[in-house]
Amino acid sequence: MARAAVSGRLAARLRWQAAALVERREESPTARTLVFDLPGWAGHLPGQHVDVRLTAEDGYSTQRSYSIASAPDADRVELTVQRVPDGEVSPYLADDLRVGDAVEIRGPVGGWFVWRPEQAEPVLLVAGGSGVVPLMSMIRVRDMIGSRVPFRLLYSVRDPADRLYGPELDRGAPGLDTTWVYTRGTPDGWTRPAGRLTPDDLVRWGWPADFEPTCYVCGPTGFVEAAAGMLVALGHHPDRIRTERFGPSGG
Questions:
Q1: Which of 33, 123, 163, 200 has the most other CB atoms within 10 Å of its CB?
Q2: What is the DSSP string of the chain?
Q3: What is the pTM of this model?
Q4: Over pLDDT 90: what percentage of the chain?
Q5: pLDDT digit string (tens) for 199-240?
Q6: 127, 135 Cβ separation under 8 angstroms
Q7: Is the domain of 198 the same as that of 167?
Q8: What mean pLDDT is predicted for residues 172-178?
Q9: Residue 65 sits in a domain of what CATH number?
Q10: 164, 69: one domain
Q11: Which residues does the UniProt record annotate as the domain FAD-binding FR-type (predicted)?
Q12: Residue 19: C-alpha distances to residues 42, 93, 102, 237 (Å)
């Protein structure tokens, strides 16, 4: 009976649901946050993602996975979509989808790359580009519940124009420290030279390994592999490093 109940619940949570766009916000020149109304949404854990399916009038259908950016909020889900050059789905979502239009959403998906509010250890978030999206959900949930767990975010982007959630992160929250790492161009007066994330950055702005933080690393595959390797070399236990990576998928 218990197994049947669990199977039924999982099947219900992973069904496709109609979702209407109710709001869209510009995050950067190439990224938009899309707010969907999703009646009967079962909720999600920070770090999970959903599948989004588009179906054309001729019956052609395609789908992509997108991380959830928001904290749980009744029947609404926020996704931040970065336009992929020559992509099939992301340009439509970022540029053409209008308030009132509908898509299909299935989820939430994932149980490893999540932060649970009952975790008491320090948290290190390491993001490359749009890899900040699921980490932003963790930050927002922490703020929503008034958690005192200390968070540190190292966010690597090419230049200031590529920052997602810039004003929100600049405002900060008690117990959240954010450090920007620019790889190509820096703001005026920025002391760190432009360049890729380094072990020195992780030492200076991350947590010491003996604090036993849980580390969440998300971004392009090369970035994630490099950052995770640095963390291991600095003494962080591999079991405390959780990674989520993305690469070319047709956009």
A1: 123
A2: -HHHHHHHHHHHHTSEEEEEEEEEEEEETTEEEEEEE-TT-----TT-EEEEEEE-TTS-EEEEEEEB-SPPBTTEEEEEEEPPTT-SSHHIIIII--TT-EEEEEEEE-SSS---TT--S-EEEEEEGGGHHHHHHHHHHHHHHT----EEEEEEESSGGG-SSHHHHHH-BTTEEEEEEESS---TT-SSPS----HHHHHHHS--GGG--EEEEEEEHHHHHHHHHHHHHTT--GGGEEEEEE--S--
A3: 0.92
A4: 84
A5: 999 999 999 999 999 999 999 999 999 999 999 999 999 999
A6: yes
A7: yes
A8: 92
A9: 2.40.30.10
A10: no
A11: 14-115
A12: 13, 13, 5, 40
What pairing do the DSSP bridges indicate for beta strands 214-220 and 241-246? parallel
Check pLDDT > 80 for residue 5. Answer: no
Q: Which of 99, 73, 230, 93 is nearest to 154 (CA)?
A: 230
Asked if residue 116 belongs to a domain, the reply is no
Q: Which domain holds residue 209?
A: 123-246
Beta strands 16-28 and 31-37 are antiparallel
Look at residue 11 and tell me whether its pLDDT is greater than 50. Answer: no
Q: Which residue has the tokens 């989808």?
A: 97
Q: How far is CA 140 from CA 72, 86, 189, 197, in A?
A: 9, 32, 29, 24
Q: Give the separation between CA 235 and CA 44, rounded to whole angstroms.
A: 32
Cα–Cα distance measured from residue 178 to residue 175, given in angstroms and rounded to the nearest whole number: 10
| Single residue among 109, 137, 160 that ends a domain in this structure | 109
pLDDT in tens, 101-128: 999 999 999 999 999 999 999 999 999 9
25 within 8 A of 112, measured Cβ to Cβ? no
Residue 153 lies in a domain: yes
